[in-house]
Design goal:
Helix content: 25-40%
Strand content: 25-35%
Mean pLDDT: 88
Number of domains: 2
Low-confidence stretches: 1-19, 25-47
Distance between the termini: 91 Å
Structural class: alpha+beta
CATH superfamily of the largest domain: 2-enoyl-CoA Hydratase, Chain A, domain 1
Largest sheet: 6 strands, antiparallel
Shape: flat
CATH architecture of the largest domain: Alpha-Beta Complex
Number of helices: 13
Number of strands: 22
CATH topology of the largest domain: 2-enoyl-CoA Hydratase, Chain A, domain 1
Length: 438
């Protein structure tokens, strides 16, 4: 403590460390924000200490400093603070509801309060990790049993010898009969280092029990395979989301498929809701050797340009599949590939989310996602509420949509109009041009 500085003065000058994540952005350096202004320190510090009002004011301060719209959707944000702090809150839940009501006035569905459970779920998702034993499950509706689809590589489940087709009969002595997959998964997950007891039935063998120690599991966001299409080899890559591990997994997919001498790539972004900004930029740099990737612009009209850095891994033909659920970071990637002429975009109009959020951890473990910037494609296009227009538009019939959604094996097959159109585009690119008549 500085000499002659009172304890109360020192307490007023304390700042809280808030973790930030850029959605459609990566884990950023911790930002230090003051929870209380000087005037509030003089008049109301005691009322805030150990009070639900602490969270209320943390949220107000973050929005006041970072929200993308300086008019706060024509809301008097200073008056909003006075109103919020004049109220009495008997519980954290009351404070949470007050915060949600204040944020609703911004009319921005992406600026939202997250209770502690919601905050943990979001950060686990963007981290691309979970705490569990590492196996994919499904419900066998015929038997009413939870069945292992496959154990993840190098996971506690794979090391313990769990195999595809194993049935999970009980979890910590609780029968799985009548459970759905989500309920079973929730019981299996838990803190790293703790144990879960599984009773397993293996077809053709005896039932047995296993005690597995939960670990941090990296979730696969990238799935890839080589497809033989006539005389051509196609590297098919499906990207589920832009997590902190997505770029590393994408690099592995491109390199391994390139080593197998593919002739072209299909990158499937259908249903990808987005994720981390820097993951989308890093993945774009694997495909685009030179040129702009995306521009972000904040409340002060300060822009940041992300560029390709001559680190492209391949120059082979590329088709990108998109649909109405391809959003946010998916649109950043698709926009960069389209505007740079690097890929043929195939599918339906994308979602149209051209905003960047940061996610802040609050002092009680809850969180706040707040919109901090707009983004624009390399050509300067604002896709907000419009989306990316494909180079080749495909609108599925209701029957086609139902067929694809009910049969995952139809994806990237001759039954998939998006994929077959990508193959046609490759053939058109390699078709010999007719000789000119002399």
């Amino acid at each position: 403590m500085a000499k002659n500085q009172s304890p109360k003065r020192a307490e007023c000058l304390q700042k809280t460390r808030l973790q930030k994540t850029l959605l459609t952005g990566a884990i950023a350096a911790a930002a230090t924000l003051s929870l209380w202004g000087a005037a509030w320190c003089r008049t109301g510090l005691a009322a805030l200490q150990d009070s639900p009002k602490t969270i209320v004011d943390e949220v107000w301060q973050i929005v006041n400093q970072h929200y993308v719209d300086g008019t706060f959707n024509q809301v008097d944000w200073q008056a909003k603070r006075v109103s919020l702090l004049d109220r009495e809150y008997s519980s954290q839940e009351q404070a949470y509801e007050a915060v949600r009501g204040a944020l609703a006035d911004l009319n921005d569905p992406y600026t939202r309060f997250l209770d502690p459970t919601e905050y943990r779920q979001l950060t686990n998702k963007t981290a691309g990790e979970l705490s569990g034993v590492g196996m994919l499950l499904k419900l066998d509706t015929r038997k009413g049993r939870i069945v292992v689809v496959e154990p993840m590589e190098n996971s506690p489940a794979s090391r313990a010898g769990i195999k595809a087709g194993d049935e999970i009969l009980a979890i910590d002595n609780r029968s799985t009969i009548g459970m759905n997959v989500e309920e079973a998964a929730k019981l299996i997950r838990g803190p790293v280092g703790t144990e879960v007891e599984l009773k397993i039935s293996r077809p053709g063998g005896d039932d047995f029990e296993l005690a597995l120690t939960r670990a941090r599991i990296e979730v696969a966001a990238v799935h890839y395979t080589l497809k033989e299409e006539g005389a051509s080899k196609i590297g098919y890559i499906q990207l589920d989301e832009f997590s902190s591990h997505s770029a590393k997994q994408m690099r592995k997919a491109i390199e391994e498929l390139s080593d197998r001498n593919v002739d072209a790539f299909v990158l499937d972004l259908r249903g990808n809701p987005g994720g981390l900004l820097y993951a989308s930029v890093e993945i774009a740099q694997m495909w685009v050797d030179r040129g702009a990737i995306v521009r972000t612009v904040n409340r002060q009209e300060k822009s940041h340009d992300f560029e390709a850095n001559r680190t492209a891994l391949t120059k082979l033909p590329l088709a990108v599949l998109v649909d109405g659920n391809s959003a946010s970071a998916s649109e950043i990637l698709a926009g960069a590939l389209k505007d740079n002429g690097r890929a043929t975009i195939i599918g339906s109009q994308t979602f149209g989310k051209a905003l960047v959020q940061s996610v802040h951890q609050l002092s009680d473990g809850s969180g706040l996602a707040v919109t901090i910037a707009h983004y624009y494609t390399p050509n300067g296009t604002d896709i907000s509420q419009k989306g990316i227009t494909p180079d080749i538009t495909i609108d599925l019939t209701l029957e086609q949509q139902q067929r694809l959604s009910s049969n995952p094996e139809a994806i990237a097959s001759e039954q998939d109009p998006f994929y077959t159109r990508a193959l046609s585009s490759f053939r058109a690119q390699t078709r010999p041009k007719p000789l000119a008549v002399q």
